[in-house]
Specification:
With 472 residues, the chain is mainly alpha-helical. It is built from 25 helices and no strands. It starts with a helix and ends with a helix.
């Protein structure tokens, strides 16, 4: 009996060794032929042919040969070996064929092969994910529904995270967030946590994004991507001290970090927020010294540089760079132009005498150009011309703003419906005109304007007092 027992155990061990040897041999063959294909020796075809002859019935080796060719972008040979594997109904062969079709931008064919891979191996999550990845271009929701089939076969796989990944790649950030929120954060792959945080960031939900990033950084404080996102989120949340700490982590304490102009631009934003204007200017200049991929983005950084100079009240430089911004922008808006006028007004407020008046006049010239270029901005341009002229003539001795307030009142008063801004501007017009005529001793006209104010705001104290004074 004991002899029979030992004989049985010996047979078991012999069988195990043979299987283990076969697996080891297959892995060795795959490793060697993959290395050879990537090295591309002169006799590559002969070497591959020799391996093929010895492994005609081993789909794992055949598909590995095809995969090695695919990685070298040789899709012709990759396809040949994928088809050898498909003849044996080997799931990874269909995966390879799907990858080849996807590489050739034939998403429909790729999805078909991935679907066959699922049929032969319904527990392979990669097949479902690749199917969904190519199908998302047609319908992200249908792509995600395919992932639901995986949940049945593999309840251990984070299907919701995969769904979030598909929606994120489709730029549907709301759906991505919804899917990621259903997944167990502790079981999510790092790339999905990164996408989850980015989706929040791109939707302007900076606090939620920052919370995720902090969790990731607790595991790896030297991750450049997460330090960058923490830096950006903190800057946009106006938490500038924290932002600068994350900036230091990104630029000085992160592994394999590469920097773009955008990083330096954000650094400038954080420093500006912290009132460290000279340092902010240095970062914007550094951003401008780097390659920026289009004119709009370059112009945007120039604008930020101009604003930084404006924040430190260096108006000559602020105006110089703002004019550069306007010259670089291919499609300048009325708001863009108004920014230059505002800089002139701020500069003039710190001046005296003729220089002050000349600078206010430069601001008015900008508003004239705004009205000429953007007829729809006539009301605002007229309003601002009125104000600029009132700054030039603060005691209303010359009535420089009078024609503009009269014009503005003529634009607003006929409106059937007036919002609060309309009413506020009308009151400003009538108050100026009422005061101007009071100074000119045109009492009847002055009374008319003060009464118009009371029609808009019966409790307006200045109008009441003016009428009381005029009635004496």
């Amino acid at each position: 009996m004991k002899a029979i027992k030992y004989l049985f155990l010996g047979a078991l061990m012999t069988g195990f060794s043979a299987t283990a040897m076969a697996q080891t041999d297959t892995k060795t063959v795959i490793a060697e032929i993959t290395k050879t294909i990537k090295a591309a020796p002169a006799d590559l075809a002969d070497q591959v042919k020799a391996v093929y002859k010895k492994n005609k019935k081993n789909p794992e080796v055949l598909v590995a040969i095809g995969r090695a060719y695919y990685e070298m972008k040789d899709t012709v040979n990759a396809s040949i070996y994928a088809e050898y594997g498909m003849k044996m109904k080997y799931g990874p062969a269909y995966m390879l064929k799907g990858d080849i079709m996807a590489f050739g931008d034939d998403g429909g064919a790729a999805a078909g092969y991935y679907d066959q891979a699922i049929y032969f191996d319904p527990k392979n999550p990669e097949a479902y994910y690749k199917y969904a990845s190519v199908y998302r271009k047609i319908s992200p929701s249908q792509a995600v529904s395919k992932l639901e089939e995986l949940r049945i076969h593999r309840p251990d796989v984070a299907v919701d995270a995969l769904a979030g990944r598909i929606y994120y790649q489709s730029n549907d950030f709301d759906q991505a967030i919804s899917a990621f929120k259903k997944a167990d954060l502790n079981k999510m792959e790092e790339r999905d946590v990164r996408s989850f945080a980015m989706a929040y960031y791109l939707k302007g939900k900076y606090a939620e994004s920052l919370e995720l990033v902090k969790m990731a950084l607790a595991k790896n404080s030297r991750d450049a991507g997460f330090n960058r996102l923490a830096f950006f989120n903190s800057t946009d949340l106006k938490q500038f001290d924290a932002a600068l700490a994350y900036a230091d982590a990104l630029f000085n304490k992160s592994d394999s970090a590469k920097f773009s102009y955008y990083d330096y631009t954000y650094y400038g934003n954080a420093l500006s927020g912290a009132k460290r204007h000279d340092e902010a200017i240095a970062q914007y200049e550094k951003a401008l010294s780097m390659e920026i991929d289009n004119k709009d983005k370059h112009a945007g950084v120039v604008k930020q540089l101009a604003e930084a100079y404006g924040n430190k009240e260096d108006y000559p430089n602020a105006i110089k760079y703002y004019e550069q911004y306007l010259n670089e922008m291919p499609n300048v808006s009325a708001t863009d132009m108004v920014g230059l006028a505002q800089l002139y007004v701020q500069q003039a407020n710190g001046m005296q005498g003729d220089e002050r008046i000349a600078t206010f006049k430069k601001a008015e010239e900008v508003y004239v150009k705004v009205e000429e270029k953007f007829p729809n901005a006539q009301e605002y341009a007229t309003f601002m011309r009125a104000r600029v002229n009132s700054y030039i003539d603060p005691e209303t001795k010359e009535g420089l703003a009078k024609p503009y307030y009269e014009k503005l009142a003529g634009i607003i008063a006929p409106k059937a419906e007036k919002d609060r801004a309309d009413q506020a501007r009308l009151i400003e017009c009538y108050r100026y005109l009422g005061y101007y005529h009071l100074l000119q001793s045109n009492n009847e006209e002055s009374i008319g304007y003060w009464n118009k104010i009371l029609e808009i705001d019966p409790n307006h104290e200045v109008a009441k007092k003016a009428l009381e004074s005029l009635s004496k």
